[in-house]
Protein 1
Amino acid sequence: MTIPPPPAEDTELPPHTVDAFHRGDFWLVQPRNDGHRAGMDALMLAATVPTAFSGRLADFGAGAGAAGLAVASRCKAAGVLLVELTPEMARFANATLAHPGNAHLTRRASVLVADVGLSGKARAEAGLADASLDFVIMNPPFNPPHHRPTPDALKRQAHVMEDGLFESWIRSAAAMVKPRGGFAIIARPEQLVPILTAMDGRFGKAEIVPVHPREDAAAIRIIIRAVRASRAPLVLCPPLVLHEQNDSFSQRAQDISSGRSALFGD
Amino acid sequence: MTIPPPPAEDTELPPHTVDAFHRGDFWLVQPRNDGHRAGMDALMLAATVPTAFSGRLADFGAGAGAAGLAVASRCKAAGVLLVELTPEMARFANATLAHPGNAHLTRRASVLVADVGLSGKARAEAGLADASLDFVIMNPPFNPPHHRPTPDALKRQAHVMEDGLFESWIRSAAAMVKPRGGFAIIARPEQLVPILTAMDGRFGKAEIVPVHPREDAAAIRIIIRAVRASRAPLVLCPPLVLHEQNDSFSQRAQDISSGRSALFGD
């Protein structure tokens, strides 16, 4: 990137990096070694939101804010709420919003420390009001518990998917999104069944995009977008292939990574 | 086809056609206008079976026998049971087996008129014994009930998917297939959730292949193969694209259609 990243305001912040996204249109302040570092997953998730989207969107499990800021960067009329459970990661999200390089976006963005797995009155009391949103995006923590645990507690929190977390997160998304509002998730292919089960009866018109590292390799991610209270059938879209056979990024992956284009072309 | 199709033995058979498949390796006797005429769906389903498969396979809802015969044609050591509910279609399946052009296959194939939706003792009494098979393939009747009904009763029977039919058919497949045996289904993308729900806890190691008419169009079919009693996670495979941009069949579709290659390359 040619624009030198200005320092973060929170000078007491633990060791961190300040990374440019969308070709320098926004900057992410994130832990240098700890926690879940943001990358292509967040950008692909953000790319599910139509460019003309002008409502209020929440990023569940926002981390340092990559996906939410990527939405704010491309969708010029979107309001974005970054919802993060851990105060440690929310501190990075706040540092991201305080970063001078994001000044053009931050009047449309805010951070909320809350557990999106709550339900009923407790959820509302945590600041997560019913029917208060037009779109929810989520990149839930996603290694199953039997994966090799890492020594780092923050990373574990981001990567270990508790049983039923999809159900509770998607239940909250359904409660908070208005009828005809949007929902999108990025996850691993093996999580297709618990995700579709949790969406059943809540979100319809699902559009699934498999993400393959190469044309001839199995999918490493699935991206699903759906509509609250729709009864339209599921659609399996053409896959997103990230790399050409020569290992370079595909044009479509570059366009999504840079914020030039939306995943569904809308 | 260069080999002229010999006539069917059942001279009282209703109006029918005799069509060559796998470049003339087998022939299908099927109703001229009535019922569900076999085509690419049956051939793609048959292509899920490994070429070296040498056990006993049942084709649930076999119709005139296209998918089962396609397995027998490519898998030289497979034994094939064609299970068909309607006596009308089973008559065509028997005519298919009686056809002289299939003489090299018919010692490994038989027809059973039975309802694969039965359970427990009734299923066993219908000739569908528990743990008697190494593989089940199915192409269930698949237009949802709200689709425009057709005047033709046979066609309706083949196309209208009753609620719960996936559950009962897949339950029967799980009962009849031995541990580590195979299962494969071809269906429509919107049926992904009821199918995966019915497979849950019965078949694992699912491999899903989306079938797209063209590279840039939504999938029109899904093909799923799985293993009885496996707990391995689901895999989303690269799609099968049927046509090139110039409308010609893709090489892979031609290879599957002709019986030259298996879908999963095994």
Protein 2
Amino acid sequence: MVDIVILGTIGLDDIETPFGKVKEALGGSGTYAAYASSFFAKPGIVSIAGEDLPKRHIDVLKKRNISMDGIEIKGRNFRWGGFYEFDMNEAKTLKTELNSLADFDPELPADYKKAKYVFLGNVDPTIQLKVLGQIEKPELIVMDTMNFWISSRKEELIKAIKKVDVLVLNDSEARQLFGTVNLVNAADMALDLGPKAVIIKKGEHGALLFFREDGKRKHFSAPGYPLEVVKDPTGCGDSFGGGFIGHLAKTKNLSEANMRKAVIYGSVIASFNAEDFSLERQKKLTWGEIERRFHELREIREF
Amino acid sequence: MVDIVILGTIGLDDIETPFGKVKEALGGSGTYAAYASSFFAKPGIVSIAGEDLPKRHIDVLKKRNISMDGIEIKGRNFRWGGFYEFDMNEAKTLKTELNSLADFDPELPADYKKAKYVFLGNVDPTIQLKVLGQIEKPELIVMDTMNFWISSRKEELIKAIKKVDVLVLNDSEARQLFGTVNLVNAADMALDLGPKAVIIKKGEHGALLFFREDGKRKHFSAPGYPLEVVKDPTGCGDSFGGGFIGHLAKTKNLSEANMRKAVIYGSVIASFNAEDFSLERQKKLTWGEIERRFHELREIREF
């Protein structure tokens, strides 16, 4: 039985940053989100991978408490290549080979359909809706998206947003989707579509959580963790989402107060993820380190 | 007797934003910082103004508890013109007429020389050093600067930074001055120069305060206030500085804990300042509103 269904890609990434480069590294939104959530609860990945996905990558996931039953193996693996310039703020894409991802038509294993927590990671909104339709009685649906779907599949994306409890996106995506520079206005427009909460990720500047209660907007501002070294930001957004839903699935408490804590846990995992390439830092990460950074984030915002 | 000496410009600003425009509005780093600090203590401005500075502008300052004895009147007033585009993040300068500011050679009134709190607002670092040299026994020197001096007067600027207790600058200025994108590294380099604390202002993303204690870096992250409407960000940085030193001069407590509170008071005044052009919002601002927003900022970062 899985606690969380995680939809997303499993990728083979070629990445270059000012701190180094990797070839055919394990990546993808599903990989990062599932790995991050596995510190808290048992995730099952819904994805498609290629026959060329190296065994060493499969082993990284298998060694964790992650179900692989929802992964179909077919053809050649999805591949992405990109680089980060000096400011590390935005990945510049060099190549996107969809390969088997182009034929992805997910069919969930029986026990996945009974999961209560669902994370619809960054893939085509049509696929997000297909997975959602197979979950029998979800208690919490969290959805992430990105600029590519906002430009190319906006109508379908809005349809999906209307069905979820928590929308997660980054600041530039929020501005793009709602046509405003003001993030408070963007959050209000997102809440108008139906979600109970909206999270706007701001990279090094932390994250904002917006709620509506009795028609009144509520707001939580999570600080960014002051990292001295950012080696590779790839997967930080997905890791944030995984940590966020992971904490909620573990504690089974959807109160505003607990969602605030979940945002902090998401930020903690994301901050560790940026310290090295691929999943290298998360692979070494201990629960003690997570708790220490959680408390550090409490300390740095105290006044 | 003044509590705080505030060095800065008194300007006549032509400003256009997506929300309107003003002509010959009261502006300048000295004006904003002094007005903001006057909610907390008695500031005295050190500046030069022109004979063409309208009486209605002088009256705005005179009506507050602000000493004007350090203002020299001479020739034509300093004028600045600029506009903000849709994203409101950065002012684009259309004109800078130094006029009488070019001959500014400050001579402090006797009682200013005895002040304990000094705010060296954004002017030529040579002038900042000249004012500092006239203060007999300062207890706290806070210094603000901007990109223009970083490009054109870096050596003099570094000389000034070495003599101050708190350096205030914004994120892009910190990156420019220390040649790094990482703000934690920039703060470390700033602390290496001598200041006890460094504040990096991040606009809507809040502000960071860095300290060093027994060789260990301490860090405070102040949230940004979630403004629904930003009409004109001009003077927000100076207002932040004024609110920051104002709270410290009022409470006479330079502990780290109280500096954190001072950062929040600075953020509160700056957030109000952005809600209207020139000093319009600050002119209507009450102490009750300041305290309410201070507590709101505590509430939005709670977890």
Protein 3
Amino acid sequence: MTDNVSALQALPPGSTIGILGGGQLARMLAVAAARLGLYTHIYSDDSGPAFDVAPRASKGDYRDRAALAAFAGAVDVVTFEFENVPVEVAEQLQALVPVRPGAKALAVAQDRLAEKTFLSELALPLAPFAAITRAADIAAAMAEINGPAILKTRRLGYDGKGQAAVSPADDYGRAFSSVGEAPSVLEQRLRFEFEFSVLAVRGCDGEIGFYDSPVNSHAEGILRLSKVPSPLTEAEQMSARAITARIADALDYVGVLAVELFYLGAGAETPLIVNEIAPRVHNSGHWTVDACAISQFENHIRAVAGWPLGSTDRHSDAEMVNLIGADADDWVQLAAEPGVCLHLYGKRHVRPGRKMGHMTRLAPHRR
Amino acid sequence: MTDNVSALQALPPGSTIGILGGGQLARMLAVAAARLGLYTHIYSDDSGPAFDVAPRASKGDYRDRAALAAFAGAVDVVTFEFENVPVEVAEQLQALVPVRPGAKALAVAQDRLAEKTFLSELALPLAPFAAITRAADIAAAMAEINGPAILKTRRLGYDGKGQAAVSPADDYGRAFSSVGEAPSVLEQRLRFEFEFSVLAVRGCDGEIGFYDSPVNSHAEGILRLSKVPSPLTEAEQMSARAITARIADALDYVGVLAVELFYLGAGAETPLIVNEIAPRVHNSGHWTVDACAISQFENHIRAVAGWPLGSTDRHSDAEMVNLIGADADDWVQLAAEPGVCLHLYGKRHVRPGRKMGHMTRLAPHRR
């Protein structure tokens, strides 16, 4: 089958899933694992909200090979909540215990240039892009792109950080400074109608399931809202799923994979453009906890534990709104709002831009 | 308002709910609290499945007053997962910290005679009953009841334990021996069409909400299956809710209260008969986790934390089946069944009759 443990060897209840990272995604993964009678062991360089719900948690540096080896010895499989796990860590661990998804998915997803190259080798629809290592590269690339563009650092960009808009008349040196002169990718800035994501889950045996695609909106580079159903037609949704399946198969992927796409409009030559991939459970799938029998978190756990995948059907329409920074101060009003499922992550300190929780508004499924 | 903390003083996220008992009900309460950003602290005389998901857990004897005082000092409110918490424990704790529901609900629910007396003082419909302290009492009571009866110990009966059927021709001495000659209640054995429960939640301000009533079936004294919708008419369900509201108001109750009733048939003189009450989240309400936006566990936590109650609406029809003893060995088949939400409690040892998990089958809501 697709990795070093047969798909028939599902980890029995009582097994332990190791999770790298201790934030809210790890927290929701740990709760989902508990529901199936599976234990979790968190490994993170900082104690976070997952530490409060997991049976075991280790605080350790990601470069501490001895601590990582002990962690690998205490768990039956390793997964992660964020794509910036150092690839060497994944490689060290996967010599000791299955790591799902594997080091290849991490290597591709944590370097924007590797990701664009991988996707273009699969002949998937992308915005034109160029690698940037110095300011002069921007001028050459802008001549090709011939219009507005966006400069993004190759590594460690998230929630809009490490990005700068670039227009033909701009000072390219200043643009490059604004991203710290880090190795970057310049890509054409597209006019799109909306952004959406495909939330797929792929099992150890290659079986793949898809949640209904949410349409997403951002504010200040941070996801603000995800909504199902989206305005996509059935055919458009099928095309997006086919793209996602190609990516998942090429990565021999196990777990939940999120692919963010732009919808350029039914009249566009290429209506769907891949923006980026996230090799993990995804913020735009949080509504699945409240609107589906089996959430993205449980399906990720099922996949990495070698279990049969659960249904991805939803029973309700849903709108997920992130609670960022002081938004969560309104918890008592939000808790009183009919039809709202409130989720707070138990973070001890509020900071501007910090994801403190989310809420899901449910409505009966329009069929 | 109804207890010593104003309803306006909802405990903010980051507060700690103390839970007496460490079984699966406490486990599901702890997960529900985490979802709201509330911490939990389990206190139990034996480590159980709740210990794996709660941020803090203390193993201690229920008679250890010093340990209980330390527990009270570490939490903002205390609740419990089982009605056999010694009343003295609840009284000791409520001198230090709010206990919800309070000692009165415990005192009534843990002594079958006190419960029947309390319910009959409220003029609620009950099967005829009599207190039994010696075998001779049975003869006198049987003469009154004039038909089949059931003998139940006053204390510590659950899942069919401490019960014996008694018929007019029986050897009453032997029947009394079979329940250990413990102080008991003899009650008329009714012919009923089905058993159902009312799952209510009452807030600190007296607000009350009801989940749709499930119809329940038992095997060998243990709940096997709960299903919504039940065959009850709207009017019958309203009568059952009115009974439950009287009980909850009389107990100045805070939290989820389950009332089990018998349905004797539309043609019966008294179609609804109260069987017993459970001052806690209830096995017949487990389907609310999968079929409602806000589960009984979250609503119990909301109530005891002084929060606004959440919606009790359900989005799906549901059938909950308990997985007892070796039933849970079929986890891989159950996990693969479409439309099934599988819940395993993480118990390390399987024993016959032990509740190892449950599953909920969902179907679209028939309106």
